[in-house]
Each structure stands twice: as structure tokens, then as C-alpha cells.
Design a protein that fits this description.
Helix content is about 35%, strand content about 15%. By secondary structure, the chain is an alpha/beta fold.
Length: about 325
Amino acid sequence: MPHVCVPDDSPAVLAASAAFPALRERAEVDYHDTLPGTEDVLIERIGTAEVVLNIRSSSRFTARVFASCPRLRLISVWGTGTDHVDLASAAQHGVAVTNTPGVSARSIAEHTLTLLFAVARRIPEMDAAMRRNAWPRGSSVELFGKTCGVIGYGAIGQVFARLAAAIGMRVLIWTMNPARYPGVEFVELEELYRTSDVVSVHLRLSPETENFIGAAQFAMMKSNTILINTARGAIVDQHALWDALTTGRIAGAGLDVFATEPLPQHHPLTSLGNVVLTPHCAGITPEALGAGLQMAVDNIWRFLEGRPQHRVA
């Protein structure tokens, strides 16, 4: 039986899923429901495992981790992001890396739309006011007819673009790889920033996209712009975002992702009334959860059978 390590199921999602019993039937599983916390603990947990089923992106697979785990052959990542894995080192040490593309696209796109409505209609702020026995009026924004700029046109960006169009928004799209989508009309980034009432981020985090949106980009946006980020926090320069939100450079933001996660206690963003925050949960619905975990486990069997799928490295 293959030796599979789950080093970081915290908060636990895999243990309660239908995929877990089947995994334990076919593999020797070393399971941990706490985060490793340090690189040394992660290395200790992986030990002599051939396969790692990675749940949390806070576990970082560095060159040292790969060098310290010579038996490792595969990291099966639950989720699409692999920015926490040193892919070059994985390749150097002969370790394959897989992910679970597309399974959370609908869930994340719906959450993106939910954040947009929450910011535009100021739902959390009005809810809190009513609980204080206030009766706030006239502070909402109608989205019909507004322009929505979608940055990134992968599985999530495509679904969200359709949702935005369905509520009557004019949709502008930019992608790094337009040749992949023949027949789709894209715009230049500057046009998107200058004309959009909503800017929604759907990029992968990479060296090319870190701080992709910063002070220069916020300076192009309209003062009524709402920024939505359900991709990765580090794609948006956090200091520039704070300045834009506090100076009125943009109207508000809906954020599911942050440069530091979990968001530290008393983080400055938590004091702003024009920001709606959720805890990196856009893709965590029962439907997406079950499908994604099952795909992560299936990726293990396909790899061990010599039929790898969803490889990123």
C-alpha cells in the first residue's frame, strides 16, 4: 500500500468527506488535523511518505522540504493555487505536483457576486446599524448597466463574467493568454481600469502577478469603483489598497483573500466600513468541497497507476 501523508487538515475538511474512507482503504495514511506551523514540523510529518495530500496553502513546500524528503513522489494539492509549492525544486527532485482545477469555479464565482452585492448594497453596514436600532436609508448602488472589469479568464473568471452579464452589467475582460480563447473580445488593462465600475480579480498568484494591482492601477480607477478579490491577497498591493480605500480613491472592496492569512487581530481593514471581508471561504461549499477532495484523491490513484492528470509540474 502506498504511504500517503496528510500534514495539514486544519480546519478539518478531508476527515469528514466521503473521499477519506476510500483513501484509507487503499493507502497507509498518516493524517494530521493541525497545521505544521514550521518547516521542520512539516518535514517531520512527511517523513518517508511517497505522496502528500496537501490541504492548506499555509504549508509551504520549499527546496529544503524536497531535499529532506527523498521518498516523496507526488504532492496532490486540494485547490487550484500552487504558489506555496516551489515547482522548480519539485521538478529538480522528481516530485510531481497536481491540483484540482475547475471544481470550485461556480462556488467562487457565486461568492464573488455575493461580495459585490454586499459592498454595493452595504449589507453588513446596514445590518449592523439596524441591530443598533437605527434605520439607515438611501446608501445602495444599483449594478444594472454598470461596467464590470474581469481580470483573468480562467474557469472562475468565465463563470463570474456570465453572472455579471446576467444581472445586466457590461463586462470587460482582460487575460494574460488571449490566444487560448478564440472568439472572445478582450480589452487592454488600462481601458479596463479607467472605465470599470467594478474590478474583479481572478488571476493565479505568481512572480508576475504579485502586487499586480498597486498605486498606479488604483490611480486609473474611478472614485466609484468597487474592487473584488477572491483570487490571492498578494495580487493586490496591501498598502496601496489601504490608501485607495481610506482616501476615497475607490469606493469600496470585497475581499476573501489577504496577504497574511488568517487576517491578524485588529488588522486595519477590519476598521473600514466600505470593506466586506470573508475568511478565504469562497470555494468552500458542500458541493465544491466534496468534488475537490475527491479529485485530489483521484489524482493520487491516477499518478500511481501511471496515468497522471491535472499535473502542474
